[in-house]
Amino acid sequence: MGISLNNNRRVRNETLEHLLSPFETTFKYCGADYRSFYAFYGTESEYPISDLEKSVQDYLNFIDNL
């Protein structure tokens, strides 16, 4: 699961892990192989292209290691 967020790593004082826990529970209930998530922070501000390129590579590595 890939997620894009603003610069804040918390949403309404909740961690992303906590907010996504119903997805994890549902995956496990259905017998699916839940593999966590990749989060990209900083989507509400101008992001340096070099940092964006690194994030793309990090996301591809995340996918390769699923």
Beta-strand content:
15-25%
User: Which assembly state applies to the chains in this document?
Assistant: single chain
Mean pLDDT figure: 83
User: Considering DSSP H and I runs of 4 or more, what fraction of the residues is helical?
Assistant: 40-55%
Shape assignment: flat
Helix count, per DSSP?
2
Helix- and strand-based class? alpha+beta
Measured distance between first and last alpha carbons? 10 Å
Number of strands: 4
The rounded Rg comes to 14 Å
H and E string: EEEHEH
Tell me the major beta sheet: 2 strands, parallel
User: How many structurally independent domains?
Assistant: 1
Organism: Paenibacillus agri
Protein name: NAD(P)H-dependent oxidoreductase
InterPro entries: Flavoprotein-like_sf
Question: What's the topology here?
Answer:
Blueprint: E1 2-5, E2 10-11, E3 14-15, H1 16-29, E4 38-41, H2 49-64
Parallel strand pairs: 1-4
Antiparallel strand pairs: 2-3
Description of the molecule:
- This is NAD(P)H-dependent oxidoreductase.
- It comes from Paenibacillus agri.
- InterPro entries: Flavoprotein-like_sf.
- This protein has 66 residues and is of the alpha+beta class.
- The chain has one domain.
- It is 45% helix and 18% strand.
- The chain is built from 2 helices and 4 strands, in the order βββαβα.
- The strands form 2 sheets. It has a two-stranded parallel ribbon. A two-stranded antiparallel sheet has the order 2-3.
- A hairpin with a 2-residue loop joins strand 2 and strand 3.
- It is flat.
- The mean pLDDT is 83.
